[in-house]
Structures are given as C-alpha cells and as structure tokens.
Predict the 3D structure of the following.
Amino acid sequence: MKNNKNVLSFDNNLNLATMSKTNKFVFWGLYIVAWLIFVGLSIEAGGLTVNFFFSLYKPEFVQNLYQKLDLTEMYNSRRLAFFGTYGFILTISILKACLFYTVITLMHKMDFSKPFHSFVSRQISKISYYTLSIGLLSYIARQFVKNLVHHSFVPDNLNQFWADSQAFILMGAVIYIIATIFKKGVDIQNENDLTV
C-alpha cells in the first residue's frame, strides 16, 4: 500500500537535474512506454484469469473472451494437463506484469544525483530474478506442452505465451551480472562514506 502511494505520487525524489535535455526526453519517453507495457500486461493477466474461470464454469463464453483461449477440451480430457498449462500461462503473465511494475518503481524513485543506492541495487536484483523466472518457466512450459502435442486437445495458439524463453533467460543473466556489479558499487560507496 505504501509502495503504491509512492509510485502514484509524482512528488518524489527523482532528480533529473544532472541529465541533459535529450537524456531527459529519452528517460520520460521510456517511462511512459514502461507504463503502457505494464497496463497492457495487467490487462492480459486479468483477461487470462477471467478466461480461466469461464473455462471452468461457462466454457460456451470462452470464444468471446480474451484471445479466445479455449482449453475446455483439454479440461474435459485431462484435467492435470489443463491446470498445469493454465498455471504456467497465468504465472508467466503475472510475473511479466510484476517485472514492469518493478521497472516503473525504479524509474520513478531513482535519484540520479546518488545512483549507487541500496534501493536501486535491490530493484535491479528483483528485475533480474523476475526476468530469469519468466525465461525458465517459459522454457519448462514449452517442454511441458510439447509433450502434450501428440494429443489433439492442445490448441495452436499456446506458443505465444512462451515464445521468448531463451531471450528472457539471456537478458535475466545479463541483468543479474549488472545487479551484482551495482551491489558491489553500493558497498564500496558505503565504505567510503563511513571512512570520510
């Protein structure tokens, strides 16, 4: 709750005074893009959750819902496969929304006059964990569904939910390395502050 208030409040400690005019423009452009992606991912996660419950209780309405993701045949044939597949879809979509929420929080609260701060270090670490988790879960989900392909109840449109698994794993690894270096930088700065 406290975090939400902090994010929604534009009266923060974001200090852009040290940035050039072009960098400020790019930063605010990326900030708006991050918000748009976050809203889109939240809508997707919400739509998939609604689909999930309609698949269980009112399967006849699924064709009119978000992305027409109809897994009722799978639900009727193999419930374990249905819950496994939908569990992967929902978890990955929610993690993507959490990832961009963390990015927005970082951009909103970051102080450019003192970038080596423990808050920034924690947020970058969170971003790396979310990204790695999305990549690994997407890869496992793809293998899981691949094993079900020989059954006719697997729809063709499932791959869109875990198409970029390798890219997410690679990106997560790179961000993790950056987070580790950043954490070390924060530790060194704290030590220097104590010795002065």
About this structure: Residues 1-5, 7-13 have pLDDT under 50 and may be disordered. The CA atoms of residues 185 and 191 lie 10 Å apart. Residues 21-57 form the longest helix (37 residues). The two ends are 37 Å apart (CA to CA).
